[in-house]
Design goal:
With about 130 residues, the chain is an alpha+beta fold. The protein has a domain at about 10-95: Winged helix-like DNA-binding domain superfamily/Winged helix DNA-binding domain (Arc Repressor Mutant, subunit A, Orthogonal Bundle), CATH 1.10.10. The protein has five helices and five strands; from the N terminus they run ααβααββαββ. The strands form two sheets. The chain has a three-stranded antiparallel β-sheet. It has a two-stranded antiparallel ribbon with strand order 4-5. α2 (about 30-40) packs across α5 and α3 packs across α4 (about 55-65). The protein is globular, with a radius of gyration of 17 Å. The chain starts with 11 loop residues before the first helix and ends with a strand.
């Protein structure tokens, strides 16, 4: 066991909350939104443009992320801007992205095929880790 890992049992509520967070981040579009919002605040139009999805889809994803407590909003003039408040989410997302970077030699055998569906949202068609 990792020496930094505390010896404690997880409750069902903790497991359910963690699973719900990972489920929320399992959408490529939502993960991309969180990645962008970890670095800066943006309005929905800018986020839609940066992610390549339409404004309505971005708005729906942001609403889900907001209900889940992953992102928050504030008024900036007539616009509503989004940001990630929970730095733990930023840490988890950064660690996952770093661990699957294809330019890292240790991860060169991993491959992921991304496609865009009819809605314009990105999805993962296949994920495989090949034998080394």
């Amino acid at each position: 066991m990792d020496p930094t890992h505390e010896d404690r049992d997880l409750t069902e509520a903790q497991l359910a909350a963690a699973a719900a967070t990972f489920s929320m981040l399992s959408s490529c579009s939502r993960l991309h939104l969180v990645w962008l919002l970890a670095a800066d605040e943006y309005d929905v139009s800018t986020l839609a443009e940066l992610t390549g999805i339409n404004v309505a889809a971005a708005s729906q994803h942001l609403a889900k992320l907001r209900r889940a407590g992953v992102v928050t909003t504030r008024r900036h003039g007539r616009r509503q801007v989004y940001r990630v408040e929970d730095r733990h989410i930023v840490t988890v997302v950064s660690q996952v992205v770093d661990s699957v970077s294809l330019d890292q030699p240790a991860n060169a055998a991993r491959s992921m095929h991304m496609t865009r569906g009819a809605s314009g949202a990105a999805s993962v068609d296949a994920w495989r880790v090949e034998a080394r």
